[in-house]
Design a protein that fits this description.
By secondary structure, the protein is mostly beta strands. Helix content is about 5%, strand content about 70%. The protein is built from 3 helices and 29 strands. The chain has a 26-stranded antiparallel beta barrel.
């Protein structure tokens, strides 16, 4: 897996060898060695209870920790973001001082064997300008497990499940901030992400004990993406008016792949690799203005224009292994469509206008109105060679074209009233309407046969109305309530629909949501605080195929969220806090009500779960304190429907426990010791992703 250093060294748009690992360590350590006797330049170091005020210019946190996992290591890594190993290093480093009239600060981090590095510095003179630069790189882990089939306990593994992806960025920023002159800022950013992650587009297998083919074979994504971003911004103020403009140029280059295996270890075993390559350039310009027209009226406006040009290519090859060259003689199976020699281009033009008015009427009424207009045009054209195997291998050359134009207008109106004692009333309306035209064509080049020819006129209307109240009747009690209604109507008018395959069928798709939220905070005495919350949300989804067809309710979603938090401080040196959240989430569709041969193919979807958090802390003396934490999560919705179709719902149980000891050794030094235990059980994976894990952590902070 490539690191940021290796990417810079290979020279993809950047000077090679800018940073190396020894240089990073030097940059972090050398300032520490050279400033131990430096005078204070003002401190933003973190403050700890029972620590005396000390004139500081920085700190360094060193840590060493290890993890031991009993069970599935990949599941633990994805859930808690750490591999099973011992690692440590500089967890946090900060140093600040003044160099003449300029403020200088540097921050860093370097965790060995964790691929977690960062370094940044800034040099600022508020009456002249600034220079800032830095880089960061970190790793995220993924679990490459597939699905579990309960009827015969089938669990397929054929590649390393412990997947990981590295993400990083390098940036430089400089600005001119001279009083009475325009403020000018330039920034360059390089970003990348590279590695592998899991995918839910699983392959199929017949090893199900006679229950037919099931898609439970794991697959993974290969990611290799880079972005170079250049930004230039200018801001200035004349009198009561502020205005500015900016340019943004972004270059993106990525080559991603989806890797799937179908019917592994069978006679029809084959590998599917789909590669997608995209090179795009995006250029945008924006401008804004803000002015105080009157004492109680402020107006802001903004305008942006964006142009995107992207070239894409790729292939989907079925072969004897991943990433093989296309072989027309390799015998695939029915429903194995692939393609090679994909070449295409996409162009987009987008224009956005914003206009906002903020008006304070008298003393207690505040009004905001906003207007937004967007115009977007997208043209896409591509050609490729389709490969398939029915009775004999076939190859078809196809061309696909689509054009979309889209206009959207949004209006927001908001009012806030504070004229009632101990009370705030507010209301808001968000209205949106969009109109577009989509043209789609697919042509078989050898026969000139048009397989798809469709022109669709579509509209989208969205309304959201919100009202609420914040109430403070007493100093130890406050409450708030909010309600909103949201409705979105999608209408599709297929002006032309000459399609050999599946025609445009849906003509209306409507969403409606009601949501209410109630929250109250009560402090019956100085030692106890209670926070209660209740949320209720219901959504309906309705679909129609147009005139002559009845509108059907294609989805009914209901959610309740109940939570309670209690904080108790019986003594100044002791605190307890506990919270519990219970979520009831249900979705019903017409398919779950089918009878006869279709009964139980689709079940009622339930996602109920509850979560418990407990925290406690004790100050043993002026130098030592202990903290305790416990978390319990439980989801009990798993239904084994695999004999008919698929298992449904989540079934999981998780415990997390930690004990932390903080000890102040001196006025400049603190040590931390922590033990943590993690336990995870999952019914949906048949126990294959279960784990118990132990973590031991030690940290030392030195402030100077």
């Amino acid at each position: 897996m490539k690191t940021l250093t290796s990417r810079l060294n290979r020279g993809r748009g950047l000077s090679a060898g800018i940073f190396t690992f020894p240089a990073i360590i030097g940059l972090l350590v050398c300032p520490l060695l050279s400033v131990r006797g430096a005078s204070s330049g003002g401190s933003s170091a973190p403050q700890f209870s029972s620590w005396e005020e000390v004139a500081l210019s920085g700190w360094i946190d060193l840590s060493l920790f290890g993890v031991s996992v009993d069970g599935d290591n990949a599941a633990f890594m994805k859930r808690h973001g750490s591999p099973q190993s011992a690692h440590g290093g500089i967890e946090d480093f900060h140093f600040e001082t003044y160099l003449g009239d300029a403020f200088f600060a540097v921050d860093g981090r370097a965790i060995v064997d964790h691929n977690d590095f960062s370094f940044k510095f800034k040099l600022e003179n508020y009456e002249k300008g600034f220079i800032r630069a830095g880089f960061s790189e970190y790793r995220t882990w993924y679990d490459g497990s597939g699905g579990f089939f309960p009827q015969n306990d089938m669990w397929i593994n054929f590649f390393e499940e412990e997947l990981a992806m590295d993400r990083g960025s390098l940036w430089f920023e400089a600005g001119l901030t001279v009083p009475d002159l325009p403020e000018i800022t330039f920034k360059y950013t390089y970003r990348f992400r590279e590695g592998k992650k899991d995918s839910l587009s699983w392959g199929d297998t017949a090893f199900t004990g006679g229950f037919g083919r099931k898609h439970i074979v794991p697959s993974f994504l290969g990611i290799d993406e880079e972005t170079n971003l250049f930004q230039l911004d200018v801001k200035h103020a004349i009198g009561k008016t502020k205005f500015g403009a900016g340019l943004r140029y972004e270059i993106t280059d990525y080559t991603d792949s989806r890797n799937m295996r179908r019917t592994p270890f069978e006679n029809s075993d084959r590998y599917v690799t789909q590669t997608d390559t995209n090179d795009s350039d995006a250029f945008s310009v924006h401008a804004f203005a803000e002015t105080q027209l009157r004492k109680n009226l402020r107006v802001t406006a903004g305008l942006s224009a964006t142009s995107l040009d992207a070239d894409f290519s790729g292939d989907r090859i079925i072969g004897s292994d991943f990433n093989v060259v296309f072989d027309p003689l390799f015998q695939t199976q029915s429903h194995d469509p692939g393609f090679v020699d994909l070449v295409g281009n996409s162009e987009m033009e987008q224009y956005v206008l914003n206009l906002n008015f903020i008006y304070n009427h008298k003393k207690n009424l505040h009004l905001i109105s906003a207007f937004r207009f967007e115009k977007q045009d997208v043209d896409v054209a591509s050609g490729f060679l389709e490969t398939n195997f029915l009775d004999a291998p076939t190859e078809d050359s196809l061309s696909i074209m689509s054009d979309k134009s889209w206009d959207e207008i949004s209006v927001k109106l908001e009012a806030r009233y504070t004229g009632k004692e101990n009370m705030v009333l507010f209301a808001r309306a968000d209205l949106n309407r969009g109109d577009g035209l989509l043209t789609e064509r697919e042509i078989e080049n050898l026969t000139s046969l048009t397989e798809l020819d469709r022109n669709t006129d579509f509209t989208r209307n969205t309304q959201k109305y919100t009202a609420g109240i914040n109430w403070y009747p007493k100093s130890n009690f406050n409450a708030s309530a909010r309600y909103y209604y949201k409705n979105r109507d999608n209408n599709y008018d297929h002006l032309v629909d000459d399609t050999l395959g599946f025609p445009g069928f849906v003509q209306t798709l409507d969403f409606a949501t009601h949501d209410i939220n109630i929250r109250a905070t009560w402090r019956p005495n100085s030692k106890i605080t209670l926070v209660s919350r209740y949320d209720y949300q219901v959504s309906d989804i309705n679909t129609s195929a147009g005139p002559g067809f009845d509108k059907i309710q294609s989805g009914d979603l209901t959610k309740h969220i109940i939570s309670e938090t209690v904080t108790w401080n019986p003594l100044a040196s002791v605190y307890f806090q506990g919270s519990i959240n219970y979520i009831m989430d249900e979705m019903e569709t017409p398919a779950s009500k089918l009878e006869g041969g279709a009964a139980n193919l689709v079940l009622l979807s339930e996602n109920d779960y509850w979560n418990l958090d407990l925290n406690a802390g004790v100050v043993l003396n002026e130098k030592t304190d202990v903290q305790f934490y416990y978390n319990y999560y439980r989801a009990d919705n798993y239904t084994d429907n695999s004999a008919v179709s698929l298992p449904y719902g989540a079934g999981a149980k998780e415990h997390r426990l930690s004990v932390t000891l903080n000890r102040r050794v001196s006025e400049n030094m603190r040590i931390t010791l922590r033990y943590a235990f993690f336990s995870n059980r999952e019914e949906t994976t048949g126990g294959n992703n279960d784990f118990d894990a132990h973590l031991i952590y030690s940290g030392l902070q030195y402030r100077f």
